Write a sequence for this structure.
């Protein structure tokens, strides 16, 4: 993947995600997890409503980008598990599956002066269980996580999480994987991904 995500329509991000996941993850329950995932909108939905990857396939694009950053910047073959990297990076935002909806709003066309209905993404959370903790919960319905994986996914938002403080700090001190996922998520979101908001 390039440093900037470009030409979203010409790339099969779902196939790339599945290839990475199947290549690196060999844990009991993974097939059931992927089967459930295929029945959600995970591979079609955005990563945000108007910020990073706010476009069709944005969520899977972001997940792949975070994995690539983690591998490029933080993977140590002597101390790290590539399976743990794949699980945490590719699934950290699983909570956003079935989370966004397309709605419409009136916007004035500057050229014609007429009001037009345009599509935009909005949040409709049917299962308001939090962010990182929701991803952990959903994954563990099908596949067991190691403690450091669960911690990494739970705290990947860092200071952007609603409740942080001492607990998050302790998690980062004890589990390097959590720090690596957080840093990779930040770099991918703010430095590598185009901030597009196109809705097909």
């Amino acid at each position: 993947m390039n440093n900037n995500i470009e030409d979203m329509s010409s790339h099969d991000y779902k196939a790339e995600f599945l290839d990475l996941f199947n290549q690196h993850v060999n844990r009991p329950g993974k097939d059931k997890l992927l089967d459930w995932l295929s029945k959600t909108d995970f591979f079609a939905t955005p990563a945000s409503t108007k910020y990073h990857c706010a476009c069709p396939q944005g969520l899977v694009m972001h997940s792949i980008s975070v994995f690539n950053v983690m591998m490029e910047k933080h993977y140590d073959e002597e101390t790290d598990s590539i399976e743990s990297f794949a699980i945490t990076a590719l699934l950290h935002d699983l909570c956003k599956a079935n989370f966004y909806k397309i709605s419409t709003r009136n916007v004035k066309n500057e050229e014609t002066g007429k009001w037009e209905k345009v599509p935009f993404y909005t949040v409709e959370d049917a299962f308001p269980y939090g962010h990182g903790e929701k991803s952990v919960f959903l994954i563990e319905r099908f596949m067991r996580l190691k403690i450091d994986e669960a911690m990494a996914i739970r705290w990947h938002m860092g200071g952007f999480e609603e409740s942080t403080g001492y607990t998050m700090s302790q998690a980062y001190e004890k589990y390097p994987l959590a720090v690596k996922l957080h840093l990779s998520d930040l770099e991918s979101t703010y430095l590598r991904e185009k901030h597009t908001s196109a809705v097909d």
Notes: The longest helix spans residues 58-74. The beta strands are 100-108, 115-123. Residues 118 and 126 are 24 Å apart (CA to CA). The helical segments are 13-24, 30-38, 58-74, 82-91, 132-140, 147-154, 166-174, 176-192.
